[in-house]
## 1
Amino acid sequence: MRIEKNMELDYLASTVHIQIVDSGCAYLDERWSGKNIRSPFSRLYYILGGSGTIETVSEQGTSLQTVRLVPENLCLIPAGMLHHYSCSSHLEKVYFHVNVTLPSGLDLLSGYPTCCILPCPAGRAQQMRSLYESQGILSVLHIQSELVRDVCQLVQKMQPNAFPSPTYSRLLQRLFSMAASPVNAKNNVRSLAKRLNVSESTLAKKFKAQTGETLGSYLDELLLKQCCQMLLASSLSLRDISDELGFTDQFYFSRYFKQHMGEPPSIYRRRMLKSMGRE
């Protein structure tokens, strides 16, 4: 008797997760309009009727891409992508806001600069609406399986080679676990190196060699993602969020957020909740 093990499969299956953070059936009109939207989650739109427009823009405000939302299409707006949206008359869609979390705690689709459109088979968008309106665990499992399939197809269309299978050393696996559980502003190269019992230079070099980015930029990205998610998924005050994330005080939290996101957390929260229909 022989048993063959795929250790990478076991590792990734336990650390890669797809989570629905918001969803709904939307019936929109010309009031559906937003500028400079940047979400900590990816938006999946199954278009039922009408039409709309998504325009991706650069940090300087230059238009990069314009896509039309039309019936029987699936649109993916990746997490963190800066974009505008609008509707000239009416638009009907089933939407799911999702995070596809990697072993690092970051999002698989974060940083991808453009939208992706896939044509849906006839009746597919209506099927997703029917599933969404259904009740029970089986409907939830069915929706999750459909979302996983669609995310896989979208990723393959976007750039199959842009998402290589990660192979991380035991040291980095431990680092990811420490940095993400919980995310905290006090996590830095020095504190993590001390907890991992390695030198700061060794940790920084190994991280750069295996991920292609600096440890400092990774920690900032992880912290900002958590800041944005807490602003949108909770009603906690800025002081409470600051305390929970380990900032020195609320004012430092606000300065840090504005430095990286271009606006204070209070304004970001108000704008983004409006874009989600949750003012």
## 2
Amino acid sequence: MIRLGVFDRLKDGRIIYSYTIYNTRGEYVQLLNYGASIHKICVLDRNGKLGDVVMGTADGRALEENMTCEGSTIGRVANRIKHGRCTVDGKELHLDCNMAGHFLHGAGGNYAHRLFEASADEENNTVTFHVYDEGEGGFGCGVDARLSFCFDDDARLSLSYEFFPEDTTVISPTNHVYFNLSGKDARDQILVINTDQKASRDEEGLPCGGTESVAETPADFTVPRTIRAGMEQEEKESGPYFGHLPKRYDEFYVLPKGHEGPAAVLYDPESGRELKVYTDMESLIIFNNIEEKPAAGKDGILYEGYCGLSLETQFVPNAVNCPGFCSPVFRKEDVFRSTTIYAFSVRKQ
């Protein structure tokens, strides 16, 4: 079942609609047509209690002003392109730079701040969002972007991307959802990432081609451990890793070619909830959401401290300038297609 609702209005009066997809167990996902956003994912814990496991914003004004883009679709290109420069088919693109001299998250064309058209397919428990991207952010050529969200009776949320470019361009979207399986300190949840390689970075922190091992570093989640344990390892063993306080992961993992099984598994011992992330993309990015002061969230909740963790699937950031990674360049005759699945379950004690 899919239920249509009115979430709020934008400053210019346009309506933000919500689309709530229910499965037969009473679990549900709520999506917004603003930013093609994941606003809620409510799934059962080991005691049969429903709980929301993602962060979200309170109202339309907060969505428009939200710079952290909780739950939003990021496009046409997520993350960074160095100095906003890249060359596609011999043509140099000069993209908008909005973060320390680099292009980030689509810059002025970020899909997180677009109102999408939407259609619901009740028979298949699917909502599809559509937007036409005219080339904002400096890309120049149009892209027809479609995103479909399906939530099934096994509590699997599938996000499928389908982008049709009108000319040669760079395409690398993601969804910027932050997970917290208990609503408490996200550092106490247990993480596994099924790769031992991360992208090598230059002096400005951008991937520069090639990979390096995560072994014996705080980035090593090849065996299960809490996020807190990873952060504490720096002090015990590995030397400088976090260049700022409070400590925050912002790591670009490179998955093995032809990888099978989940790219990442997140588990909360208290609730018993487990999340497995499946993807056909090359990279998984983890990033902590940290609120140093209480910040208003949805449903009257105040977010504070380590509120959530992103598990973003996409091409390696700056891959357009790094020939060693999968290329995010697509031509007029190409179609970009990709699927990420967030599969929820419960571990019994």
## 3
Amino acid sequence: MLGGPSLRKRSAALVNDDLLIDLGPDIMAASHMHSCSLDNVQYCLQTHPHTDHLDLSHLLSRSPEYGVVGAPVLNVYASHETSERAAETFERNLAGYSLLSSEAEKRLNFKIHEVQPLEPFMVGPYSVMAFPA
């Protein structure tokens, strides 16, 4: 039986040290378990809004209450549906304000970019194309 980094967690992947695919619920545990820093993550490709791929509570840890200072802006790339559902859930269950608001951008030091399926776009140095599923 394989152990260590072969143990499966819920969805997330780190490319190089700056691109995260899915902000899954196990990302912090996996980061600590495998001594893999997330300090340089500047980009997140969010595949869809299901909770096994998107844990919005992680965004709260980017707020001043958690002592985060000097972190790079987190640019989140998601479909319109994912952005809307995330904003509704975040406002209803976590913070009382929308993720799509300027308050969220400033307080959480992040920005959501809506992407269209089959339209290539740049994410920092990465060329990306989203496919509908």
## 4
Amino acid sequence: MSGTSADGVDVAIVEIRGRKVDLLAFETFPYSAALRKSILALCNPETARLHDICHYNHVLGEVFAEAVIRLCNKSGLPLDSIDLIGSHGQTIWHNPQGPKYDGEVIRSTLQIGEPCRIAQRTGIATVADFRPRDMAAGGEGAPLVPYADYVLFSDRKACRAVQNIGGIANVTFLPVCGKHEACSPSCSCEHGAHPEVLAFDTGPGNMVIDGLVRLISKGRRQYDRGGAMAAKGAVNNDLLKEMLRHPFLRRKPPKSTGREQFGESYCESLYGQARKRKLSPEDMVATATAFTASTIANAYRKFLPTLPDEMILCGGGSHNATLVRMVQSQLPEVRIRSTDEFGISVDAKEAVSFAILAYATIQGISNNLPSVTGADEPVILGKIVPGV
């Protein structure tokens, strides 16, 4: 998969036996600077062109297929030992609110990375395009990884929140569950009925931080490595208060967001406001980092049934020590861990999740969570392209 940061292809090779999930190999294959620039242009209505969308849909299919082949070669795992590929694709537009057609709101989303190219190049059956079926069933098409979060991290004794901090940050709330082999993400287990799994996008993760760093450095730097820049700055509370008034943050779940609300235009506007206040570059990045931390903490306090015992971090933002420190300071009651402690790299977790979703699809198991996406009913996600 490739996330909203559009910085490369994450490939995980996973062995699944029922509920047992083992990560055998993982690698991120970065996009070239030229390819990343082209993809980001597709995400902007002012620069996207139909012929480019068509072209790069097939280009990314080739890029994704090549990434699978390269990881197999690097890990020593034969390509013909892979039974199934799950591909999330590259999101270029996500519109969960949707304009109306014939009096009805039509939600829509578009991920590119042509799965027919992947199946043809690798000879392996490929499941892709997971989000539209949930939207067709009345959902927002996101977030989808909570199904996998439940499989991987639900616990009999601890209430947990799985917090991904990618370009966008999203949380999966996992209530205590007397999990057993037949247990599903919305079960009534031997401890009686329990609250449903809850998940939603909390707001921007790395997207605004990265966007400001690019603007400040005029493109020479893409992100704040380790949170070092933010650590040298001071948070401007007046600007932070204004940022926290964003209407998305007040919306109740189910909800999802993306580059459409917190992308380039938002970052350019924020950069202009920060310059008017004469903030230093370090203060700008510190304020953006505090914005992400605050949106996460505020979402927990406002929208979760209770604060979790543990927060399990994953995604690129978990490498940002300043961001993690800010989150912990705002949620001192919550123990922060990482997916690394459970045998799954924080960087690999999203790719592993789509392997689990693809496995469920091919098994004919519904793998959206209506309590999360707002769909009218459980459905089987994805489109299956046969292998050779």
